[in-house]
Structure formats: C-alpha cells, structure tokens
Amino acid sequence: MTECIIPSPFGSILICANSQGITAIRLLSSEVALASPTSALLKEAAKQLENYFLGALQHFSIPLAPAGTAFQQQVWQALRQIPFGATCSYQQIANAIGNPKAVRAVGMANSRNPVAIVIPCHRVIGANGQLTGYAGGLDKKAWLLQHEQQPGQTRC
C-alpha cells in the first residue's frame, strides 16, 4: 500500500493505492504536511485530480480498487454513471441498481464510499433537491457541485 497527500482548493487530500488501483481518496478535515506521490499510479491520480480542480478534466481514468461489500460495489458503480454536472437522488440510484426499496441502504453505501470525487458520491442529493450528508462536509459537497455546474445541468 502506498499513499500521498496532495493539496486541493479546500484542503489536503489523502490518496491510497495498492497494486490493483486506487483504494481511497479522502478529504482531510485539517491541513497536514503534503507527501509527494511516489508510484506511477499515485502520480497519475494526483495529476487527474489537479486537472479536475483546474476544470480541465471531467472523467477520471485511473484504476480503482475500493474495498466493500457486493452491494456497496454495485452502488459505487452506479455512482460512476452519474454524468459530470448532473445530480441524482438516492431513490434514483436505488432504481438504477434494480432495488427501489433500498434507498436507505444506498445512502449507507454512499456514505461509505472510500474514493471521494472519482466515485462521485457528492452528486447524490435529496429527492427534494437539497444537499444531504457528505463525509467531507456539506461545504465541500457544495463546492464540488458548484465546480461541476454547467449550463443546462441535469438530474438523473
């Protein structure tokens, strides 16, 4: 397992990887000392995140290897289908995975997403259009959604 800490517009970000791919991207709650990427995969992840923050990247192409249950993996895969600039409700994600009664379970899987930003759990909002919980904090969720906002922004 290798890791690095990079800067972002709203604080430090920890990136972790193993031989299969990125295992975690976490928004840290406090500023910490930066640690440069040492592996090719970490360097590529850092580069793609930097380009995302600059507005030059909308689709990530780094390999991912998040640990989770089969259900969590299914939800996280559905989250990756939410287009840049769009938002979905928890109900829409439950419907997308073919389990419309699993709204709360989708919310729990969403909250356990270990790969922030790349698996865009920040794009999931309440059915009423309001921002709901986000592990990195609602201020960061609002920042990310504002960053991705485009003319004609859509919902799922």
TrEMBL record:
KW Iron-sulfur (keyword) present: no
Any GO BP annotation: methylation
Residues at the active site: 121
Keyword ATP-binding appears in the UniProt entry: no
GO cellular component assignments: cytoplasm
Family matches, as Pfam families: DNA_binding_1 (PF01035), Methyltransf_1N (PF02870)
Catalytic activity, reaction form: a 6-O-methyl-2'-deoxyguanosine in DNA + L-cysteinyl-[protein] = S-methyl-L-cysteinyl-[protein] + a 2'-deoxyguanosine in DNA; a 4-O-methyl-thymidine in DNA + L-cysteinyl-[protein] = a thymidine in DNA + S-methyl-L-cysteinyl-[protein]
The family this protein is said to belong to: Belongs to the MGMT family.
Known function: Involved in the cellular defense against the biological effects of O6-methylguanine (O6-MeG) and O4-methylthymine (O4-MeT) in DNA. Repairs the methylated nucleobase in DNA by stoichiometrically transferring the methyl group to a cysteine residue in the enzyme. This is a suicide reaction: the enzyme is irreversibly inactivated.
UniProt protein name: Methylated-DNA--protein-cysteine methyltransferase
Source species of the chain: Alkalimonas amylolytica
